[in-house]
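Need tokens for this chain, all 524 residues.
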Amino acid sequence: MSISRRRFLQSLAASFLGGGGPLVTAASASEAPSSRRADAARLAEAALSAARSAGAGYADLRILFSESEMISAREERIENVEVSTSSGLGVRVLVNGVWGFSSASVLDPAHASDCARSAVEIAKANRALATQPIEIERIEPKVDRWQVPIEQDPFAVPLDRKAGQLLAINAEAMKAGASFAHSFFLFVRQEKFFASSIGSFLEQLFFRTYPRLTVTATDPASGRFANRSSFFPPRAAGYEYIRSQDWKREAHQAAEDAQRKLKAKPVAAGRMDLVLHPTHLWLTLHETVGHSTELDRAFGYEAGFAGTTFITPADRGRLAFASELVTVMADRDQPGGLATAAYDDDGMPARYARFPILSHGRFENFQMAIGQSRWIGLPHSNACAFAEGHAYFPIQRMPNISLQPSEQDISIEELISGVDEGVYIMGDGSWSIDQQRRNFQFGGQLFYEIRKGKLGEMLRDVAYQGTTVPFWKACDGIGGAKEYWLGGTLSCGKGQPVQSAPVSHGVVPARFRGITVLNTGRGA
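Here are the structure tokens for all 524 residues:
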């Protein structure tokens, strides 16, 4: 039987919730749905009805169509072109307070129904393992469409043009003295449908673009080599992001930096001040603040892959995490942000994801997916759920998490001018952090000594070591809004089975006092 999407949602929601007032809110979605949208509605009807009949109190369905293209080049040749597509659906159900999940790669109503019934059976089997019932908050039903705004679809750009761009970038780096040059473009397009038993039907379209250049300089006499990667992070954007970058300048600068690194002097280890550029600090923020403030880690439900956290629920609103200069905000509406969306994978509107994690140094809020807020007595979660693909259960993941600029117009140069002896670090490098996000070590790409308020010679073999709270309390300088820069990663890992998630971090430069600096060179 074929029914309209609107009728389907109304009837389904009424069947789960026992009738009542209108449950489908005003639709910003088109009234002329595409065939894919209509197919998604039919799959949702089948899955959610089957879930209800099998005994689910709540159910939701995600249908994903994903496409990626990666083109890589080494020196003067195209090294690889890899195109992949995937599609499928995942059904999540809540039965007597216990989650169940099942997925399928065949998109037809029969498989959707089978998936729903299988998810219910899994939930019933999981009951023996449940320690406390899951209670989800009341979620406002929504029917909506949204997409990442782009100017040029990267998948519509001819392959030879993209390949030619990569070869031109490599040629500029080689011309500037690089011994080797490796570059790639990675494009991701993901169309996601979400439907739930409360009456939501959401359609979102995501584009992500990641360009990367890595140059290597070598010294045959010593056998040493040095790398420098570009400072253009992945973004939620189309091909216009590639076109907007000054690749010629970046390729030349990267080649020159790599050659200078070969001649850089080793750092003298000790305690000193650091000025961290946004191209470096985003990763420190991600590991020490982003991951430590995830509620599932605080309860020990996320532990096996990368550990828990030193923060406890009792620390909320009390823990002095950082200096009063440090405020860190979450959001899902930052332009270009990799976690920017209108809704998370629980169907929660993005406005719930705008909240302070740290406010003037104090820890204020955990990140939560649905069903977690009741653990700490809060009325609702904050739109922090994501699933890598159709075959993955949605788990709590970071929204965009950003260090807020100083209200004063403070430049990097002003931060450096306040340092008598220290190191200035640019670019992300190696990192290590313990199982509670407490003790860490970070490297970088470019290091410069600071003497009496001025940048000095380039250094090498630099890493710094610290403990999360004392480190952030040692921050005594934050850059102004003009220094704001959006970094991030496409592949933040979490969970078992491990899931990869995209996330951005807005950052300004910052100064930290009395940090332990290591010399990582051999024999140091």
